[in-house]
Specification:
Order of helices and strands: HEHEHEHHHHEHEHHHHHH
Number of helices: 14
Strand content: 5-15%
Structural class: mainly alpha
Strand order of the largest sheet: 1-2-3
Number of domains: 2
Shape: elongated
Helix content: 55-70%
Distance between the termini: 48 Å
Bound molecules: tryptophan, iron/sulfur cluster
Radius of gyration: 23 Å
Length: about 350
């Protein structure tokens, strides 16, 4: 053994302890997605981009929320597994690193369901019914009868977040109402039992609401989204079909970028000088929508190119997704177990005197 090797051997345990200490000191992020289909550009600017940026600074947990699929897709559970795989691929493709961050499946952590039961007693029915995002979703959905679980899903989401005692939740604007509800639940628990939970903050992405190509809210079900996994040809077709400023009939008509959703894409994905140039040319009728859209096709395809390449790379590594999820589930469960021990103890639900310490 050389001197260097000896030093290395001796220092390794020390280093591990330090690393572990560091990991424990980092604040935590928890956020996630429903596995109802592939992720789109709205997800990227709303939340994914922040996740990638913050994954060194925070200890990150990303939940794939399969319970939430049941709210409005109860009869379409056959493809959940397939969608989970697609979402993990989307995560890896945008740069989420499974060696740094924990990716896990919600239903594989039974402690989340237990926490949901406790939390559901700590919020009033009236408060749950007042959540503006849930109200909007109920209106938009075509289900004839809204389930109790649908109205209550933000409580299960609070359990996701608080199961790992997260501090920060990067989300799209529509989710802020749920984080507000989570904050109230955390405060109520801390006041009633013991101060276990941080009161987490929402972090909204740099583009709060990227519209769909029909200028409605971007969503899979409306068919107005560009997916991270779309081919370049499909991106072209979608953008060329998009609705622009309705006042422009001839390419020389003076346009209004402020009401055009393509212009919102320039703001989100173009560089500032290009945005300015488009804005001026559009307002003075010097650029037609067809040309403007063609340039946008190039920008989006340029942005998606490395993402597509990374996606293919991981899709071809058999067994990789499975490993990521098994490791992630184990890691998330480890933390959730610790949290639930604290919760049960604080609520006198551990029955140590009655059953002994380990039962
Ligand atoms: N409701 C979120 C969405 O539809 C997904 C989600 C589930 C989530 N659990 C979460 C987001 C916890 C943030 C934190 O996008
Ligand atoms: Fe929109 Fe571009 Fe057409 Fe202006 S020129 S209305 S910014 S698509």
């Amino acid at each position: 053994m050389t001197k260097d090797e000896r030093t290395l051997k001796i220092n390794l345990p020390l280093l591990n302890t330090r690393m572990k200490g560091k990991r424990d000191m980092k604040k935590r992020i928890l956020t996630g997605d429903r596995p109802t289909g592939p992720l789109h550009l709205g997800h990227y600017v709303g939340s994914l981009e922040n996740r990638v940026m913050l994954q060194d600074k925070y200890e990150c947990f990303f939940v794939i929320a399969d319970y939430q699929v049941l709210t409005d897709h109860l009869k379409e559970t056959k493809r959940i597994g397939e969608f989970i795989k697609e979402i993990v691929l989307d995560y890896l493709a945008v740069g989420i690193n499974p060696e740094k961050s924990t990716i896990f499946i919600q239903s594989k952590i039974p402690e989340i369901a237990e926490l949901t039961t406790y939390f559901s007693m700590m919020i009033s029915l009236a408060r749950v019914q007042r959540n503006p995002t849930v109200k909007e979703e109920i209106k938009a959905s075509e289900i004839s009868e809204v389930s109790y679980g649908f109205v209550g899903y933000p409580i299960s989401q609070a359990a996701d977040i608080l199961s790992v005692r997260a501090h920060l939740v990067p989300v799209g604007e529509d989710q802020v109402a749920h984080i507000e509800q989570t904050r109230e639940i955390a405060r109520t628990f801390n006041r009633l039992f013991a101060s276990i939970f941080p009161v987490p903050e929402a972090l909204v992405g740099r583009v709060a609401r990227l519209p769909g190509l029909d200028s409605q809210k971007m969503s899979k079900s409306r068919g107005n989204a560009i997916f991270l996994s779309d081919s370049s040809e499909s991106v072209r077709k979608k953008i060329m079909r998009a609705i622009t400023d309705p006042a422009r009939i001839h390419p020389t008509d003076k346009g209004h970028p402020d009401v055009c959703n393509i212009f919102r894409y320039y703001v989100a994905f173009g560089n500032p000088p290009e945005c300015e140039e488009i804005e001026t040319s559009c307002k003075s009728g010097k650029i037609g929508c067809v040309n403007c859209k063609k340039r946008m096709v190039e920008i989006i395809n340029g942005f998606l190119k490395p993402i597509r390449e990374k996606r293919n790379h991981y899709a071809n590594q058999s067994g990789f997704i499975k490993d990521v999820l098994i490791t992630g589930n184990r890691r998330a469960r480890e933390e959730a177990k610790k949290t639930l021990e604290l919760v049960r103890e604080a609520m006198h639900f551990d029955y140590k005197d009655l059953l002994g310490k380990d039962n």
